[in-house]
Amino acid sequence: MADQNFTVTLSLDKTLEEVFQAVNNVRGWWSEEIEGATDGLGTEFTYHYEDVHRCKMKITEFVPGKKVVWLVLDNYFNFTEDKTEWKNTRVIFEFSRKDVKTQLRFTHEGLVPEYECFNVCSNAWGSYINGSLRSLIETGKGRPNRKENGERKKAS
Question: What is the largest CA-CA distance in the chain?
Fold first, then answer.
């Protein structure tokens, strides 16, 4: 059976380190509504988007220039009947070199077509990875979700 997990691969004209740094700057490409550290083994952070989506992630693998894995500890969607979707799935970033380019392979392991949220979630991930993260890597500026109140909170 074919792998049905949602996957996107980018080929980039940047170093492994530049791509790795950008991926771990989660506020720079996913959302400014991230609370907690996003760049170290064992750290936990939360994501929040309006009243639509909240999740809590734990970084379970963190190998510079090679791999980062987030485990979804908790998740809430306001648009699914199945409240277990995403829970205990893994978001995986794998880094490698191919010829003169850096390859970034993004996989949401467990985000499969049987999920209620598959179409919405795969479209959103595609936009964040192909759009915002790619832009952050290539230009230094991503397009993350803005803070709801329009203000940036102070980093603690």
Answer: 47
Structure tokens at 120: 């919405």
Q: Which residues make beta-bridge pairs with 109? A: 90
> Domain limits of the chain?
6-139
Q: What are phi and psi of 133, to 5 degrees?
A: -65, -45
3-state secondary structure of 54: strand
- Residues 66-81: tens digit of each pLDDT: 999 999 999 999 999 9
pLDDT in tens, 28-79: 999 999 999 999 999 999 999 999 999 999 999 999 999 999 999 999 999 9
- Cβ burial, residue 7 (10 Å; 0-12/13-18/19+): middle
Superfamily of domain covering 6-139: START domain (3.30.530.20)
Q: Is 153 a residue whose pLDDT tops 80?
A: no
54, 95 Cβ separation under 8 angstroms: no
Q: How far apart are CA 60 and CA 156, in angstroms?
A: 23
